[in-house]
Amino acid sequence: ALLGALLGKLRATSVPADDLSTGALPKLSVALPICTDEVDNIFARAALADAAAIGGWELCNISTSAEAAAEALARKYPRMPDIDTVDVLIVDVGAASTWVAAVRLCAEAAEGWTAEVLTENSDSGLGCVDFDAVIFDHFSEVVRAKYGEPVAAGSRAGLRLLDGCERLRKLLSTMPEAATTVENLVEGVDVPLTLSRDELASSCASLYERLRAVIDRVLAHEGLQPFASVEASGGGTRMPSVQAVMSEALSASAVGAALGDVKFGAKLDDASTALGAAFLGKVRHSALAASAATPAAGDAPAPAEADVAAALTFCGLLAGDEL
């Protein structure tokens, strides 16, 4: 219901009044965030379909984040002469989740590419906030040992410390050792904090292992050809330690060995997933509209209308009955 209200507000503020007056529903295309499992994914799609109906949108496309990013990459990747297909690895370490995908770009007759996600893998509980949490636990213990009281998570002091941990992590992306000060952390005392890249690496070793496992599962997929490039996306990939894990995984694989020491690409910015979802929505809606323009045999409904009705009915049944 809350998401439906938000989508309704978005519709009221972003769709021109003249378009709303026609009675036709505006089109909505969405890239889903990472889900923990297939059941969670089905629930998310059903909830999104309900929210779109509440907000007054026609849901024309639901894609994964990898599919949307791949579509955006196809619009940005430079065309190379005499090359029909290239495989690209995308690694996205975001605020709260991580996904890795192998994408194949196929040359079109005109300039440009079409994108196909060959395989993807993810960890819905691995992101920048998890690194911040490890740093928080480290300094909470340091404060307890020095000042005699720990910093409680969720308290005002805890939020200030967490903000300081985030600053340290970001600073370590550009320097080997970082320092910051958290004001009024303990009984009006401003507490200085320092952290080095080596300390961060040792504290977050288990997180790097999880990241390596996600990358390795994608690199082990059969049928991949040697990657032409690696695209790093998400704020977490700016961390040198994360880039080192990516390089180690590539060097240990047959399809990525040539790129182990190569600088990673940065063609996918923060808006690329949303941009790719919009492109996919336009392409799929146009395909459905073209199918609907061709009369179906007999009295059967047009294929596009039947497909859309079936998809929305399926989501509605899941949301109303099983879930």
TrEMBL record:
Task: Indicate the segments annotated as coiled coil, or none if absent.
Answer: none
> What protein name is recorded for this chain?
Heat shock protein 70
Q: Does the keyword ATP-binding apply?
A: yes
Q: Which Gene3D superfamilies is this protein grouped with?
A: 3.30.420.40, Actin, Chain A, domain 4 (3.90.640.10)
Q: Which GO terms describe its molecular function?
A: ATP binding; ATP-dependent protein folding chaperone
Which keywords describe this protein according to UniProt?
A: ATP-binding, Nucleotide-binding
| A GO cellular component entry from the record | nucleus
User: So where does this one cross the membrane?
Assistant: none
